[in-house]
């Protein structure tokens, strides 16, 4: 059976609900024995505080320790809140990339998918993306969230999505074992598949990872084609340093707007670059209230850094379907004030941290 | 108040096909005490790819007037103001960042200029006698060979141990290759100045680029070029050993052999110089001395001479020893102690670190005597005057002398010299009173570079 939930928990991204009220309601939902998931109800006993009593708003998400490592083992059925009863519509189980060890798993329920797609759609429209244009997405699919987010974004904008899959785990394995030539061959294979599509189909939006865009820069015919017909490029998946971004925007793809996307599995969605900034300004990602909250902290103390300073990115995902509070990301970024009424921090110039818990972070084509 | 002469840090931009390029947040170059002295723009992979594409598109530097162009670049390098730096400022910065004594840097400036001016003639020395330079010469008859490039774009992943590493690639430029140089992040000044001087002398920016990168992007450069020379340690040599497109330049493991028919006392100056000139940092500095008979007197004399070398900051004109950051000096010292365990120390056994008190330290010389010619220590090459002295006997044969860049032989044994010249793993043999660091334009350092870059191509029927 379905349990009643406060209306605020069903709020969409355009409903303008109070983030603190939303967080309060969500935490009660996830920790109520009637509605919470098996995972959170079991875990509650080992928390040093009472979430239902102590979490009064967004800032109190910092009370949670980073528990995301546990998502490497938790049975995914234990993550679904009981409150959905038999009505839970599980669309996907997504894995993190496994950059820092075994993958972590999250579930995507139907209601969250709708909210996520709506917010991505809205941000893309702010960037003036064409409606009804064909997309080519070159991104990891399968257990990886990013490919799904892009496919849904294309569909939401009324564009048929053509896609090429990539396997980031295999690439990382090749890099870790020093098989650079095989990485190169695999990348060539991806470029070849893209070439067939780009040269024969009318592609209006290209969505690809940073290394793929860098690789396209070597292909004269593709550059001519992309600059001639593509009307927007969405990049994401890995980081893009400011110099690469500037070169891609001004020299490689001077005719095409370049729009950054920052997201990951623990966020369960993607944030789009703030509209209206050019390539010589920092690439800013705003959070999306009331679901995704960012903070930028000093990794040594956990205290927030000053606005304008670089620190480690902490991400909280809060929705009716999932709660992933206070997850320390493998990224650093400059703390920026968020746009509009969003709560928490915005981040600029996201960059990787070199190591996470002693394991070297390796990035490949993804 | 800060004194008026406190200057802004020097900016070392990348020098790409379309001119200087400054990144948004340039990397910091520090001197041996840790003070910032320059900002170096490390370019991202997409910049490297595009620069290489531009180099590939450009043709060779025209052969006509090349000697005059190189002479002008040599003059500019040795005396001009390049990238905003006069030659004295340049030499000071090299000395302060690499820790190389100023006099060594000054000698290197003149030496490099000499190599630049003669790069074309020097490269020509490596041409096989069966080939002609460019067009087939009708006088040679029906069939013959031209000396042709194997490829178009050559990359240099340079080291920063000695300014002299930048003498070699001039030959590639003279042979018509387009060249991309990745400087050492520790000492980027020399290649920046040299590339700048060549640009000013008329080498097109699309034919010669300076591409500073981080370690990871360096792989993009090496992979993206047709051919590359890569400087580094044994790990680098191992990484590229099976890549025919890459010429690794590893440790020199330079040695001196003294046989019983020669009195080493007459050659002590040469032996000391081989160990310690150039501050002992070059691959052509002697790492090991092998002596037929008792090595102890030679070790003692060598130690006595080396112990007198003063410990001074690198920019002092009397300085002769290398300087590095104190923590690195301590690490080198600790490594030396672990390697030297079980040997007989004649000098430096109680440490080689001479703390200058400003965050930097002099690395003082070390002389250790090992028990036999097969001692593993003989393969340990460190970036300061550090020498292993070993006994050698005829029964050891030439096995302990293998794997050597320069072998100076103080001996009258002609048969032994012939055997050493024939040994494939010894790159150069200097007989008699010649220091190991001797080099001259046109004489190969580790084979002719052109062996790697050029080939004879049979051409028939073109008059």
Give an overview of the whole structure.
Chain A: It comes from Streptomyces violaceoruber. Chain A: This is AMP-binding protein. Chain B: Pfam families: Aldedh. The complex is a heterodimer of chains A (366) and B (463). With 366 residues, chain A is of the alpha/beta class. Helix content of chain A is 30%, strand content 23%. Chain A is built from 10 helices and 15 strands. In chain A, strands 4-3-5-6-7-8 form a 6-stranded mixed β-sheet, sandwiched between helices. Chain A has a 5-stranded antiparallel β-sheet with strand order 9-13-12-11-10. The longest helix of chain A has 21 residues. Chain A is globular and about 60 Å long. Chain A starts with 18 loop residues before the first helix and ends in a 6-residue tail after the last strand. Chain B has 463 residues and is of the alpha/beta class. In chain B, helix 1 runs parallel beside helix 8. Chain B contains 14 helices and 23 strands. Chain B is globular. Chain B starts with 9 loop residues before the first strand and ends with a strand. Chain B has a 7-stranded mixed β-sheet with strand order 16-19-20-14-13-21-22, sandwiched between helices. In chain B, strands 10-9-8-11-12 form a 5-stranded parallel β-sheet, with helices on both faces. The longest helix of chain B has 16 residues. The interface between A and B is medium-sized, with 15 and 14 residues.
């Amino acid at each position: 059976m379905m349990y009643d939930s406060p209306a605020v928990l069903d709020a969409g991204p355009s409903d303008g609900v109070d983030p603190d009220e939303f967080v309060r309601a969500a935490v009660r939902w996830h920790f109520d024995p009637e509605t919470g998931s098996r995972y959170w109800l079991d875990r509650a006993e080992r928390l040093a505080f009472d979430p239902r009593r102590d979490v009064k708003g967004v800032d109190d998400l910092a009370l949670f320790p980073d528990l995301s490592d546990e998502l490497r083992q938790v049975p995914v059925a234990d993550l679904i809140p009981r409150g959905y009863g038999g009505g839970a519509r599980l669309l996907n189980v997504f894995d993190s990339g496994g950059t820092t060890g075994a993958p972590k798993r999250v579930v995507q329920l139907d209601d969250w998918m709708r909210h996520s797609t709506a917010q991505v759609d809205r941000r893309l429209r702010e960037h003036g993306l064409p409606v009804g244009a064909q997309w080519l997405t070159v991104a990891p699919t399968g257990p990886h969230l990013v490919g799904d987010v892009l496919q849904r974004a294309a569909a939401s904008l009324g564009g048929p999505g053509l896609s090429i899959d990539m396997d980031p785990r295999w690439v990382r394995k090749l890099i870790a074992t020093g098989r650079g030539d095989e990485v190169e061959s695999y990348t060539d294979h991806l470029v070849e598949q893209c070439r067939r599509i780009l040269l024969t189909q009318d592609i209006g939006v290209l969505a690809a990872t940073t290394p793929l865009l860098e690789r396209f820069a070597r292909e004269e015919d593709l550059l001519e084609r992309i600059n001639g017909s593509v009307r927007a490029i969405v990049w994401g998946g890995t980081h893009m340093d400011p110099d690469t971004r500037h070169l891609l925007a001004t020299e490689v793809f001077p005719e095409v707007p370049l729009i950054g996307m920052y997201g990951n599995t623990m966020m369960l969605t993607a944030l789009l670059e703030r509209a209206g900034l050019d390539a010589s300004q920092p690439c800013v990602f705003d959070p999306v209230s009331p679901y995704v909250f960012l903070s930028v902290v000093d990794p040594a103390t956990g205290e927030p850094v000053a606005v304008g300073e670089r620190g480690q990115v902490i991400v909280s995902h809060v929705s009716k379907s999932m709660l992933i509070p206070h997850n320390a990301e493998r990224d650093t970024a400059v703390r920026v004030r968020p746009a509009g009424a969003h709560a928490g921090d915005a981040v600029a110039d996201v960059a990787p941290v070199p190591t996470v818990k002693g394991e070297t972070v390796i990035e490949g084509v993804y | 108040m800060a004194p008026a002469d406190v200057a802004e840090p020097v900016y070392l931009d990348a020098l790409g096909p379309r001119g200087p390029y400054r990144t948004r947040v340039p990397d910091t170059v520090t001197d041996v005490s840790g003070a910032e002295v320059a900002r170096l723009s490390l370019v991202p992979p997409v910049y490297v790819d595009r620069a290489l594409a531009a180099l590939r598109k450009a043709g060779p530097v025209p052969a006509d007037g090349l000697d005059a162009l190189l002479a002008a670049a040599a003059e500019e390098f040795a005396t001009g103001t390049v990238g905003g730096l006069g030659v004295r400022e340049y030499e000071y910065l090299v000395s302060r960042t690499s820790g190389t004594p100023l006099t060594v840097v000054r000698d290197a400036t003149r030496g490099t200029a000499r190599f630049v001016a003669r790069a074309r003639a020097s490269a020509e020395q490596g041409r096989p006698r069966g080939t002609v330079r460019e067009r087939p010469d009708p006088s040679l008859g029906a069939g013959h060979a031209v000396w042709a490039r194997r490829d178009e774009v050559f990359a240099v992943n340079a080291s920063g141990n000695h300014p002299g590493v930048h003498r070699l690639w001039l030959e590639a430029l003279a042979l018509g290759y387009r060249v991309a140089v990745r400087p050492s992040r520790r000492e980027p000044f020399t290649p920046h100045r040299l590339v700048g001087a060549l640009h000013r002398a008329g080498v097109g920016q699309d034919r010669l680029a300076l591409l500073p990168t981080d370690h990871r992007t360096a792989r993009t450069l090496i992979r993206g070029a047709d051919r590359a020379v890569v400087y580094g340690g044994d790990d680098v040599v191992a990484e590229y050993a099976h890549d025919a497109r890459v010429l690794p330049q590893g440790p020199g493991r330079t040695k001196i052999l003294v046989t019983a028919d020669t009195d080493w006392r007459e050659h002590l100056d040469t032996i000391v110089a081989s160990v310690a000139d150039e501050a002992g940092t070059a691959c052509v500095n002697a790492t090991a001395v092998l002596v037929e008979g008792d090595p102890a007197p030679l070790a003692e004399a060598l130690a006595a001479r080396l112990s007198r070398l003063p410990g001074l900051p690198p920019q002092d004109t009397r300085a002769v020893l290398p300087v590095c950051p104190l923590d690195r000096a301590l690490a080198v010292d600790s490594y030396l102690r672990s390697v030297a365990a079980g040997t007989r120390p004649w000098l430096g056994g109680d440490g080689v670190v001479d703390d200058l008190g400003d965050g930097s330290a002099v690395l003082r010389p070390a002389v250790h005597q090992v028990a036999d010619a097969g001692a593993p220590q003989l393969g340990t090459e460190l970036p300061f005057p550090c020498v292993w002295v070993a006994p050698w006997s005829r029964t050891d044969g030439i096995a302990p002398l293998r794997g050597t860049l320069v072998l100076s032989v103080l001996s009258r044994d002609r048969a032994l010299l012939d055997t050493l010249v024939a040994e494939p793993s010894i790159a150069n043999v200097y007989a008699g009173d010649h220091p190991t660091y001797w080099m001259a334009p046109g004489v190969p350092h580790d084979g002719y570079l052109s062996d790697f870059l050029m080939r004879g191509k049979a051409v028939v029927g073109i008059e």
